Amino acid sequence: MSALNARLRYLFNSYYNQTATEQERDELFQIINASTNDVELTALIQQAWNDLEVNEPLFDPSKSMDMLNNILKNGNQDNIHIIKPPDNYRLWQRLGTAAALMIFLGFGAYVLINKKRQLDTKKNITKMQPKHDVMPGGNRALLTLANGKTIYLDNAQNGVLAKEGNTQINKTHDGQLVYEGGKDGAATGAIPMNTIATPRGGQYQLVLNDGSKVWLNSASSLSFPAEFTGKTREVEITGEAYFEVAKNAAMPFRVKTNHTVIEVLGTHFNTMAYNDEAVMKTTLLEGSVKISNNNYTSILKPGQQASLNQNGEIRVVNDADADESVAWKDGLFQFTDASIQSIMRQAARWYDVEVSYEGKIPVREFTGRISRNVKASELLGMLKYEGVNFKIEDKHITIMQ
Fold first, then answer.
1. Which of 124, 144, 219, 264 has a 20 to 30 A CA-CA distance from 386?
2. Residue 73 has what pLDDT?
3. Handedness of CA 209, 212, 218, 222 (dihedral sign)
């Protein structure tokens, strides 16, 4: 074993076991950046990584991802993000997802395995910090009752907020809105309709009268009856929502958007119907749903995604990335081969900012993941490493060529 190989193995072990000093961490990344031979470096990292798996001689990608996450525990796990290098990048091809990219965020910096960029972590992150920044969104929503009364949920105290018909409306300590009671279907007269709306920079979770759970993304709304009666359970949304529908075969659950009706008995699915997106997408995680409009009807199976374009045509994609579709619910930005415009539309809604472009808009695709709890500059920092420049002024982000 060469001296370099032995040293690299030692550094990997120290980093993995969280015993590496700051100087040793810097040395690890300096070795990676300083190599002039892709083949040699690939072999060294492959061997050093495999040597960590003492009881498992085979290189298992899922095990390696767990190990990589353990390595990164000395930083803020919530801020970990992954950016896929170009397809022809040898380390990515040779080592796979887990070992091809290491990102060290112990102090909010990013270190990519890309020797051509020669990134000095501490210096570059200091340079990246903008004078202006934007904080992430949070649990904010406005509830409108049947009588027109409005309640700002982010300011409302926990406990009983109101009564609608036979239903009591509660705000829980963890920030959920819960509708309770009135489940006997014996309501008389008109059923009160409520609307919950999240602003840009807001999100909220609620439990409907039948036990169904709904997560609302930013700039979205849900209109629903305080109590479900009759033969169906019908709600209407704008924007994006994730549903976990309580099963009731005798009373199908229907979600209406501007262009479609989604019908389910009991299932988990995400639907995205923002007006500023070119297509509406419904992704099924569990159960089955029927999607229909004036011209088309399609039944989805778990793992499928239906896209409705502006011409009213429905296209079904098999093996959709369900994790990406519901990442927002789990507190993440996640995108695969996404354009800069697509990413910035998500950013605009979550950070409640306006976005403009100077010069030619970068025609590139990005793959990454990062916590939604970070400031706007940290999300944009991912793009900066890929050559996208930006500036933040008040509530405005400018993307520059």
1. 219
2. 43
3. negative
Instruction: Note the pTM of the prediction, 2 decimals.
Output: 0.70
pLDDT confidence tier of residue 309, bands split at 50, 70 and 90: confident
How far is residue 237's CA from residue 256's CA, in Å, rounded to a whole number?
A: 6
Query: What single letter denotes the amino acid at residue 321?
Result: D
Domains of the chain: 3-128 (no CATH), 138-324 (2.60.120.1440), 331-400 (3.55.50.30)
How many degrees, rounded to 5, is the angle at CA 38 between CA 37 and CA 40? 65
Q: Distance of CA 4 to CAs 16, 48, 114, 249, Å?
A: 18, 11, 19, 65
What percent of the chain has a predicted confidence (pLDDT) above 70? Answer: 68
Checking 181-187 for CB contacts under 8 A at 24+ apart, the result is: 181/209, 182/209, 182/226, 182/227, 183/209, 183/210, 183/227, 185/228, 185/229, 187/227, 187/229
- In the structure encoding, which two tokens stand for residue 57, read together? 């001689």
Task: Kindly report, residue by residue over 70-98, the tens digit of the pLDDT.
Answer: 444 444 444 434 344 334 333 333 333 33
